[in-house]
Structures are given as C-alpha cells and as structure tokens.
C-alpha cells in the first residue's frame, strides 16, 4: 500500500489550541511536521462557555461551528506553509473538531464536535474527513477513546506488557498486553480540574510546571471524597469529559472541608489525577512493565514525579514511566497524528474503532468525507 500524506487536526478537552500534524501514513507512520495554533482568546472563551452552558442559542451554535471550521482550516494552512508542502500533495485532512458535549450515558447517547468540515475542505482545497466519533456511538459504543488503535499500531511490543497514558484534559489509558485484545478507557481527569483551579486562583490558563500544586499539601479527606465518585467503580468500556468532572462537581465536594488553602486543593487535585490513573492501571493491567505518557501533562514535572512515585508504591512489579518521545513520538502531537491515521483508515476502507475499547457492536469505518476542490 503506497504511503500518503495526511493532516490530523484536533483541539482537545482543554481547548488550549488546535494541534496540527502532517503525517506520512501507510506501512509505517511518521509525523513529519507539527504545530499548535492557539485559538483566538475570544473564540476560546465562547467555546468554554458553550461547553459549560445548559442551553445554547442556535445562532451561537452555528457561528461557533463556522468559526472553529475557519480556525481549523487556518491551522492546516499554516502547518503546510511552515513545512513547505503544497496542499495538492496531501491526500486528506482528518479533523476531530472541538467537542462541546459528550454524553455517552444519555438515552439516546450522543457526542457533538464543532468545526464545519465543508469549510475546512473549501478553504484548504483538501478533502476532509470529519465526525469520527458518531458512527461508533450509533453502533452502541462510547465513541471514545479512539487513540488505542493508533497506540497499538505504533507502540505495542510483542515481548513487553505496555500501557499508553494520554494526559490531556481527561486521561485515557491504552492497555497493550501481548496476546490479549487491546483495551482502553478514560480514567477520569488529568488536567481539566487543575487548569480550572489555577485559572480561578492564579489567573493563568494552567498551573505552569505544577508549582502551585507542589507548594501545597494533599488533604486525605478531600482526596477520598474525590475518589468516591461512581465513575471509578464502573468497568470499561467508559469515557467521560467536562460534562461530569467540572468546577461544579468539585465545588460539591469542597464545601464541607473547612479552611483548606487554595494550594492544598491544587495539590490534592493533582494527587487525585495520579491516584485515579494508577488505581485503574493496577486493577486492569497489574503486569504492566512500561507506561508511555503523552499529552500536555508530560510538561508538568510535579505530575510526572508523583505518577512515577505512585507507580513504584502501588504496582505489584516494577513499571517504567517514560514520555512517548522515547519512542520517536512527540507527546504533544500523538492525538493530532491519531486523526491523520483515522483519515488514512477511512480512505483505505479500514475500521477506526476497537470494539473491546468502545463497546460498539462491531468495527466501523469512522468519519464522513467532504471532498476538496483543488485550485
Ligand atoms: N508547562 C506545563 N505545566 C503544567 N501543565 C501543562 C504544561 N504544558 C501543558 N500542560 C497541561 O496540558 C494541557 C494541555 O494538554 P493537551 O494534551 O493539549 O490536552 P487536551 O487534549 O485536553 O487539549 C494544558 O491545559 C495544561 O493543563
Ligand atoms: Mg490541547
């Protein structure tokens, strides 16, 4: 099968910016160039407001869909410009869009991403594949996580039990045990609650370097209340998002704690992310020998330090923690590479979901195709 160039585009739960990757897909995946284009601040504010809103005006929904589509097209354009590659050399764009609601537990379940793919195809001239999650949801699946298929393709090892941990707004684990089907699920929050608390108390978009968390102490009672959420008792398949783990969810658990300092809360939130991840790994894949981390959380040294320490204490045998960079994959662009890979799967007629991961009735070719018009 000939290798082809694809572009993957995503903005994750954190809505920190659009990650764009130019990827050679085929026998061996290779990320050739990648960059993040921050959202214009006003658009980011509107997106976060929409993600939190109980109700959303239809006009605002339509305007956001168009604006996100334009921002995604701009991310693709500037990626190609930096890489010095012509749009005509790219087979397709895979666009995840921006999730504003993920409700896999409602009846009927749904998941909703913004970013008009027709607009991306029209502006870039490149055929765009988008809407990757809904075919899986329609087939009874969670629609998430989709990353385990790519993780298995590029990071599995026949002689070692591995797991891949994506530290985005939400954390997801992929379990790669030789001889067993690939499994994967969202473990709960990674950065989303940390970002929200830092924004409220420091006025910054995140707790840079984890310094705020490192300056506080873990409160055992609050930690126990956070870990008591039913989500952690649910067996996989499972996925979650800001709809569940958000500032209101935290406020309900903070109320009775008395005079905890803001730094102690941040420290406890970080411990909560770490504990929920390691508990899930210990229960689901206790023999894991290597945990490969990616996503923005790898840039938080306090988070990585506590993860390593907790793995040492809680896992029954030694488990090495390392960044996906050790395997030639830039941790900031694994998710963007995923949507290039999914576009390649779509164009090749291959399924993009794993039924053991999402719980769908069967493998499905994911996404819909919006043809480009080369000028
Ligand atoms: N230097 C850093 N210090 C602390 N946290 C960081 C740093 N860099 C990135 N992050 C965290 O990573 C998050 C972005 O990670 P990302 O993988 O893009 O998540 P998402 O997929 O949800 O957009 C930021 O919101 C922030 O919490
Ligand atoms: Mg991001």
How far apart are the first and last residues' alpha carbons, in Å? 27 Å
What top-tier CATH class of the largest domain fits best?
A: Alpha Beta
Low-confidence stretches: none
Shape: globular
The gyration radius over C-alpha positions equals 20 Å
Helical content stands at: 25-40%
- CATH architectural label of the largest domain: 2-Layer Sandwich
Q: How many DSSP helices?
A: 13
Largest sheet, described in full? 7 strands, mixed
Strand content: 15-25%
Q: What's the CATH topology label of the largest domain?
A: Nucleotidyltransferase, domain 5
CATH H-level superfamily of the largest domain: ATPase, nucleotide binding domain
Structural class: alpha/beta
Mean pLDDT: 96
Question: Layout of helices and strands, plus pairs?
Answer:
Layout: E1 4-11, E2 18-25, E3 30-37, H1 41-52, H2 58-83, E4 90-103, E5 110-114, H3 117-124, E6 128-130, H4 134-138, H5 147-155, E7 162-167, E8 170-176, E9 183-189, H6 192-202, H7 211-214, H8 220-227, H9 247-254, H10 262-284, E10 290-294, H11 301-314, E11 320-323, H12 334-348, H13 355-358, E12 368-370
Parallel strand pairs: 1-4, 4-6, 7-10, 10-11
Antiparallel strand pairs: 1-2, 2-3, 4-5, 6-12, 7-8, 8-9
Helix pairs in contact: 1-2, 2-3, 6-10, 8-10, 10-11
Bound molecules: adenosine-5'-diphosphate (ADP) and magnesium ion.
Provide tags for this entry:
375 residues; alpha/beta; Nucleotidyltransferase, domain 5; 2 domains; seven-stranded mixed β-sheet; 12 strands; 21% strand; binds adenosine-5'-diphosphate
Question: Briefly, what is this?
Answer:
With 375 residues, the protein is of the alpha/beta class.
């Amino acid at each position: 099968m000939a290798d082809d160039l694809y572009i993957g585009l995503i903005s994750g739960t954190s809505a920190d910016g659009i990650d764009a990757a130019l990827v050679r897909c085929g026998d061996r995946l290779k990320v050739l160039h990648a960059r993040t284009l921050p959202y214009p601040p006003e658009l980011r504010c509107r997106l976060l407001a929409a993600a939190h809103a109980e109700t959303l005006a239809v006009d605002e929904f339509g305007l956001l869909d168009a604006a996100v589509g334009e921002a995604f097209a701009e991310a693709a354009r500037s990626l190609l410009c930096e890489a010095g590659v012509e749009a005509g050399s790219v087979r397709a764009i895979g666009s995840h869009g921006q999730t504003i609601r993920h409700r896999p537990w409602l009846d009927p379940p749904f998941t909703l991403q913004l970013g008009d793919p027709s607009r991306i195809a029209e502006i870039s001239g490149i055929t765009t594949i988008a809407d990757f999650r809904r075919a899986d949801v329609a087939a009874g699946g969670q629609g998430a996580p989709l990353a385990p298929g790519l993780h298995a393709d590029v990071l599995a090892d026949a002689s070692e039990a591995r797991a891949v941990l994506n530290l985005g707004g939400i954390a997801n684990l992929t379990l790669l045990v030789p001889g067993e089907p690939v499994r994967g699920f969202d473990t709960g929050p990674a950065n989303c609650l940390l970002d929200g608390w830092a924004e409220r108390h420091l006025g910054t978009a995140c707790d840079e370097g984890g310094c705020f968390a490192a300056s506080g102490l873990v409160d055992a009672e609050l930690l126990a209340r956070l870990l008591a959420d039913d989500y952690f008792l649910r067996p996989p398949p499972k996925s979650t998002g800001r709809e569940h783990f958000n500032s209101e969810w935290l406020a309900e658990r903070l109320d009775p704690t008395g005079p905890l300092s803001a730094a102690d809360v941040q420290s406890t939130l970080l411990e909560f992310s770490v504990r929920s991840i390691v508990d899930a790994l210990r229960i689901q894949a206790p023999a894991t020998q290597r945990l490969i981390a990616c996503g923005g959380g790898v840039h938080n040294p306090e988070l990585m330090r506590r993860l390593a320490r907790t793995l040492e204490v809680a896992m029954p045998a030694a488990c090495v923690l390392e960044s996906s960079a050790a395997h030639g994959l830039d941790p900031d662009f694994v998710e963007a590479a995923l949507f290039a890979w999914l576009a390649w799967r779509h164009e090749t007629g291959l399924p993009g979901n794993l039924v053991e991961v999402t719980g769908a009735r069967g493998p499905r070719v994911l996404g819909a195709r919006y043809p480009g018009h080369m000028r």
